[in-house]
Structure formats: structure tokens, C-alpha cells
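TICKET #2291
ISSUE: user wants both folds in one file
ATTACHMENT 1:
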Amino acid sequence: MRQHWVLVGVLAGTLLAGDALAQHKAPNQQPTTATAPEVPAGEVALGSVRLPRAASADGKPLPAGMYTVRVTAQEAKPDAVGTTESLERWAEFMQRGQVKGREVVSIVPAAEAKVVAKDAPPRSGASKVQMLRGNEYMRVWFNKGGNLYLIHLATGAAEKPSSANAKPYEVLPVRNK
């Protein structure tokens, strides 16, 4: 009698499993992934920029002044998931041929520039410096070969917003002479 119930249980399990397997569907077609963005390899001379105030680059002081900026071939090796390593590299701030500081530069390919940049980028071949709200950070960006190069420097000069209704991410323009 006991063997009879075991046999009934096995048959019932087989019938139920067969129904469950019959309902299986093929996986949905996954969207195609974008091709790897093309950015210049090796060193890239971005141009000159005037920093209106002292900042911190890679945790070290960087005085206000005129600098020549170049992107190195060294990747910054980001820890963030989903980033492309070749788009995060080191930028060097140079004066009289000597490196005075370096910071990570984010390279935004031309095809993605309109999606990423909400503000008007600098014209082709030019640079732009912006103080971010509260003067806590300075954004230095270049437009070279259609790609945008964004560098964010800490100024250490956090100020309280003048209004309780102020937007915390409002951009304040700085003239670049």
C-alpha cells in the first residue's frame, strides 16, 4: 500500500512539472548595447585656462592663475560601476612646463554631449570655468575635437546660500579672460 502512494506521488509530480515546463517562454530580446565611444588615445593638449581662485587638485593646493592643461594617457581607474575607464583619465595643470597639479577629467564623447551637458558648452577649441553654487566647487571644461572634457576642483570655500529657496546646484558663471 505504501508503494502505491509513492508511485501516485511520483506520477502527480511528473504531470505538474510537465505543465510548468510547458509554460516556459523564450527570453525577451535584449536591446543592443552602444558601441564603445571613441576618444583620443595618448596625451591631449586641451589649452590654457585661468583659474580665478585657489582650488584643490588631487587633494593638493592649486593656486589661482593661468595654466596650460593636458590630458594624460593614464586612466583614472574609476570604482563606479557602468563607467568606461578610457573616459576617466588624469588632467595635468602646468605652468612654465612644470606640473603644478593634477585631477581626474571626465571625457564626454561628442555623441553624448547633448545628453550630459545641460549648460551651453564652451565653443569649439575654447575653455569655460564655472563656480558652482556656494563656491564650493569649480568646474573647468574644454571643448576639443567635439568632445567635452570636464574637471571638477574643490575650492574649500563653502558659503551658505543667501536664500532658503535657492537651488543647491545652480551654476554661477565666471568670465574666462
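ATTACHMENT 2:
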Amino acid sequence: MLWLTSVHFTETCDPGLPHLITCVQTTDASETDMQQTQLVHEELARRELLPQTHIVDAGYVDAGAIVESREQYGIELVGPVSKNNQWQAKAGKGYDQSGCSVDFEIKEATCPQGQKSVHWLERTDQHGHPNLLIRFDLKTCRECPCRSLCTRAQNKPRLLTIRSKEEFLQLQRIRKLQGTEAFRTMYAMRSGIEGTHSEARAITRITPNSLYWSEKDCFTTPSHCCRH
């Protein structure tokens, strides 16, 4: 019988301190990397080894994981989130979702032309995750001189489907952050995990599928596991 597995490592990366493996998760290869983020944090919490900042590969992070890590464990989950794949962003022109301001207090969105939304519906998607459907006025959208920059719909108004408030805000924040030099410098610390990857392959003959690189605080505070 052939048994395919994935191995997920978590390792400290505090400057000036030894790099220590704090968690090893072995899972069925059919499980996604994203499914492991919560499990790793649960294990680190159980052993009182939670980091302040957790730098991970793109497969382990999305807006939901960022919010969940912060709210449940006080962890700043850091990793490259998916790019804005809306057609306006890909074309480099037009009004993608980030061009609209969203006021969650009064439940209203404003488009780049200053028009206000007329409909705000809180709902859940097919996976049970909360999201919002925001609609602008049909007549206003039809008469807008910038309509071609906003929507490709022939006869419908502009619609926005966004995540919950916290996920929406975190996604916008991290997309801006990951284009900065500060983010690239911090994320470069994760590259050292490839050495652990190579050693694990050479010594145990396993092939780690995905790897974590975690630290207590990138700049000042040593990891729990380094103190003990």
C-alpha cells in the first residue's frame, strides 16, 4: 500500500539565536497547506510555544487565516496573499474593488465617482463563510460616463462582493504591505527554512511538502522555545 504524506515544519528564526524546530506536522498528502495553519497554532498553544509573528509560505495564508490567527492566538501571520485578480487590476486601468471605499459603520460603499451604494446584504458563501453583497443604483450606473472602467455587465449595476469587515481590511492592508521593502526584508528570513528542508530529506528520506518559518519577534524578543 502506498501512503503519501506531507510534512510541515515550524522553526524559530530569532536573530542571533539558534534556530529550533518547535513543531512537526505529518498529514495526508490530500490535505491542503491552508488546513494546517490552525492545527499548527493549536499544537504550539498546547505546548506554550506560540510566536508573536509567524512567517509562512503563500499556501498557508489568506485573509481568514490572518484574522483567525490574530483573534484566537494573538499571532501576526505574515505571508504573501493572493494578488488582486479582478480584470481592472490585471489590465492596470479601471476601478477594481480597492478603488471603492467601504464604511462598515453606516453600511455603505462609495465608488471612485462619489456615488453611494443603495443595497447592503450580509450573507454566507457556499462554504459558510460570511461575506457582503453591495449594490449600486442601476440608473446611476447606466448613466455613468466611467461605466466601462467599472463593470462589464451590459445592463446591471456595479456589484461588490467582499469578505467580512476584518478580512476585507486585513486583505487590503497586507496587499499594500507586501509591496514594500520592509515586507520583503522580513519575509526573506523564511528562506533559511530551506536548510531544514534539505536536512530532513537527506537524513530521513522524507520530502517535506510545505514548510513554516516562525519567530517570536523579528527584531527584539527571543522565542519561548529559545528561552526554555
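RESOLUTION: both attachments delivered.
EXTRA DETAIL ON ATTACHMENT 2: Residues 209-213, 215-228 have pLDDT under 50 and may be disordered.
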